[in-house]
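TICKET: design request
STATUS: open
ATTACHED STRUCTURE:
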């Protein structure tokens, strides 16, 4: 498929823009590419989702300029190259897009592999999903006194249903839901999943088992990496790319980390021993917080003791030694933990 320069407007961005602005384009467009241009529509580079995630892992901020992440070594063609030749180039280089430019690198259009976005949307994955929905939601009392937190509605739809439908949309069909507090309400609402043409089974925690304990209740027959999501988060994480990241890195467990900034309300004194080095006035610190989303290989689940209490940090920090490959997948997409009244109100204002 060929898109003219005019049809590419939604994925073009000026070279002085920020990484955050590029992220917004990637999230809105099905083309999954950003074309970086200057004021004269000269193509300067391309940006893919992977370019941004690698930058975040290196410590770059979303407020950095896009020249820090864009690729300048992109493949391009002239208008004279036939689409048959373009497809051969795509196949040879395992790429999905090729920009079209003139001799001065002015952008004329974009070749896109036929039906790319539709193929991505219609793919079905063999992976199962575990949705953690057994918590009491104490910080949301009194709202959770008679309603389990996963069934609290965000603009008319239960939180857990939003998560479930996001997974269904990308091609996941087999679900497990861990339940404990007010479990009957969750089971009665979702049933066996036939409403969504999927399969739902339930893991009954007779007593709280922690954020990883319910893994021991899963059937031992699971043969593909398991996607785990807390039942109290809203996110626009790209699940297919998350699964692909896990596979490409040959990981045993992949932890999704959401970029978080904290600005100290005080000036920070830097010292070396007892010697003064400097004072930094109200510095901002960046880190990755646990997003409550994981991919775990079946080999790990088979090593857990039945019905023991286990939190995910204990599994990662203590149970899994250096012989297990543990990697972090940086999230730049929308992410919000619905754990407090203020975050619930924020979700109702922001979520679409």
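STATUS: resolved
RESOLUTION: sequence designed for all positions
ATTACHED SEQUENCE:
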């Amino acid at each position: 498929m060929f898109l003219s320069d005019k049809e590419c407007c939604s994925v073009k961005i000026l070279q002085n823009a920020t990484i955050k602005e590029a992220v917004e384009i990637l999230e809105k467009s099905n083309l999954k590419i950003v074309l970086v241009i200057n004021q004269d529509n000269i193509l300067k580079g391309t940006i893919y989702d992977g370019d941004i995630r690698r930058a975040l892992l290196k410590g770059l901020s979303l407020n950095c300029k896009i020249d820090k992440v864009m690729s300048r070594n992109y493949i391009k063609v002239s208008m004279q190259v036939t689409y048959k030749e373009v497809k051969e180039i795509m196949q040879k280089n395992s790429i999905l897009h090729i920009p079209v430019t003139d001799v001065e690198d002015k952008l004329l259009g974009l070749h896109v592999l036929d039906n790319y976005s539709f193929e991505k949307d219609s793919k079905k994955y063999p992976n199962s999903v575990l949705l953690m929905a057994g918590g009491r939601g104490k910080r949301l009392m009194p709202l959770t006194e008679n309603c389990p937190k996963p069934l609290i509605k965000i603009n008319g739809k239960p939180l857990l249903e939003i998560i479930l439908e996001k997974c269904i949309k990308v091609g996941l069909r087999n679900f497990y839901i861990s339940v404990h507090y007010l479990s009957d309400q969750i089971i009665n609402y979702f049933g066996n999943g036939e409403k969504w043409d999927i399969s739902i089974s339930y893991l009954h925690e007779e007593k709280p088992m922690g954020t990883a304990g319910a893994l021991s209740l899963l059937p031992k027959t699971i043969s593909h990496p398991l996607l785990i999501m807390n039942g109290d988060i809203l996110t626009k994480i790209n699940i297919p790319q998350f699964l692909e990241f896990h596979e490409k890195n040959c990981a045993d467990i992949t932890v999704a980390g959401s970029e978080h900034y904290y600005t100290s309300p005080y000036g920070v004194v830097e010292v070396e021993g007892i010697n003064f080095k400097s004072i930094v006035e109200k510095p901002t610190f960046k880190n990755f917080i646990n997003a409550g989303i994981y991919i775990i290989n079946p080999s790990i689940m088979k090593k857990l003791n039945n019905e023991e209490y286990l939190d995910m940090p204990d599994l990662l920090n203590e149970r899994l030694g250096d012989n297990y490959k543990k990697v972090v997948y940086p999230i730049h997409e929308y992410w919000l933990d619905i754990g407090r009244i203020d975050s619930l109100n924020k979700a109702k204002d922001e979520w679409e």
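CLOSING REMARK: DSSP finds eleven helices and 19 strands in the chain. Confidence is low (pLDDT under 50) at residues 116-121.
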